[in-house]
Design goal:
The complex is a heterodimer of chains A (247) and B (119). In chain A, 41% of the residues lie in helices and 16% in strands. Chain A has 247 residues and is α/β, with parallel strands linked by helices. In chain A, α1 packs parallel to α2. Classes of the chains: A alpha/beta (247), B mainly alpha (119). At the A-B interface, β3 and α3 of A face α4 of B.
Chain lengths: 247, 119
């Protein structure tokens, strides 16, 4: 941590979420008034960017859809470029409750912790995912727990808070479609200390999920390949850019 | 290799050569990426012009059967596709990074404009 009061960025990923994004931004601002709220508009075709601005967020609009990984990385690059100490990721559909951000930040407080993942399954009577998704999450939990040598209960959670060194690492690695699992593997291999903390999870406020049945199959195959690459890959090289330079 | 096959191989090589020239002329293909194609065309022309080279290749590699030749050609094609995949991935990573940085710079510029509208 570089100062007594860390600068916090809450970045929200949004793709065609004009009906939900305003409410999500306002809830984040209420829950975390000291943070800057950034909406990464991932090539939306609707008025997501305008709705976010009207709700008081700063907006980075990608000219076309990069997917969750590319959009998330944009938030991380922004956090590094603007000198934030901590960045919290939320989704524009309202699934990750802003009121739970403090749980992530509390868990991130110890100096040895680099990143905290909000787990839907650690809380008593936690989130009940649909059957097939539950099997998939369990499958990846077992694999990731073995690779990371710690218990991983929610490998697909995108509700994360990370300090600058972990953000710098995430900004360097090339993970595009589905970043959560591959990021955990990469961080673990690079020696970062990542922990989970229990959070509750809401239903989507509006819009539709980006993952349908066909994409689910693609997801499993692609993420498995990503895990293999993450395990065998050499450490990533620094980016020659003011945005991606090492801290 | 009979004359008919030699003519077909020559015709394919010439067709590839013309396509290569066309793409280079239109600047659709950069010279460094044309090297691998130039090599393939040269090899085809050499084999058609000097069939004994095929016999030499057979003696060196032991590929007597047609299936073995097909496997050899397939391996060459796979290598070329791998080369193309590497190039596509490198450009993909660069495009994503440029897109991200462009979007962030645009947001910073708009923020500056809002802060000082007269600028």
């Amino acid at each position: 941590m570089q100062s007594q009061t860390p600068r916090i960025l809450a970045y929200i990923l949004a793709h065609n979420e004009e009906s939900a994004i305003g409410q999500v931004v306002q809830r984040v601002r209420q829950a975390l008034p000291e943070a800057t709220v950034l909406v990464v508009d991932d090539g939306s075709m609707d008025n997501t960017a305008r709705a976010a601005r009207e709700a008081g967020a700063q907006v980075v609009s990608l000219p076309f859809n990069l997917g969750i990984g590319g959009a998330s990385q944009t938030g991380q690059i922004y956090a590094i470029a603007q000198g934030y100490d901590i960045a919290v990721r939320l989704d524009g559909d309202g699934q990750y409750p802003p009121a739970e951000i403090h749980r992530l930040l509390d868990a991130l407080a110890p100096a040895e912790v680099d990143m905290v993942v909000g787990s839907r399954f650690l809380a008593p009577g936690g989130y009940k995912a649909p059957f097939l998704r539950r099997i998939g999450i369990r499958f990846f939990s077992i694999i990731l727990s073995a690779i990371c040598r710690r218990r991983v209960t929610d490998p697909t959670s995108g509700f994360i808070a990370a300090k600058r060194p972990a953000l710098t690492h995430l900004a360097r690695i090339a993970v595009f479609d589905f970043p959560e699992i591959e990021s955990l593997v990469s961080l673990s291999r690079a020696g970062f200390h990542v922990i989970e903390t229990p959070v509750s999870m809401a239903e989507r406020a509006a819009g539709t999920s980006s993952i349908n049945l066909l994409r689910s199959v693609y997801y499993v195959v692609k993420v498995l390949m990503g895990i293999v690459v993450g395990v065998i890959a050499k450490p990533c090289e620094p980016q020659r850019s003011r945005f991606g330079s090492p801290s | 290799m009979n004359t008919h096959v030699r003519i077909v191989v020559c015709a394919v090589a010439v067709a590839f050569g013309l396509m290569l020239l066309l793409f280079l002329r239109r600047r659709q293909l950069r010279p460094e990426y044309a090297l691998v194609w130039t090599g393939a065309i040269t090899l085809m022309l050499l084999l058609a012009a000097f069939p004994r080279l095929v016999n030499l290749l057979v003696a060196i590699t032991g590929m007597v059967y047609q299936s073995a030749v097909i496997l050899f050609v397939f391996a060459l094609c796979a290598l070329m596709f791998m080369n193309v995949s590497l190039i596509a991935c490198r450009h993909g990573r660069r495009i994503v990074r440029l897109t991200q940085e462009l979007a962030i710079l645009k947001a910073e510029l708009e923020s500056l404009k809002r802060a000082s509208p007269e600028a």
